[in-house]
Amino acid sequence: MKKTNKKGFTIVELVIVIAVIAILAAVLIPTFSGVVARANQSAAQQLAMTAVKSSLLMVSTAQLPDGTFILINSSKTASKEPDYGYEYNGNALGNSVILKENNVFKTSYVTKCDTILVNASCFETETETVASGSVASSATTIAPVLKSMLNFVNLNSLDAASVTYSEDAKGNIKITVTHDSTSKTYNVFTSPDIPANAVVFVPLGSN
Question: In the list 50, 97, 189, 204, which could disulfide-bond 85, CB 3.0-4.6 Å?
Answer without folding.
Answer: 97
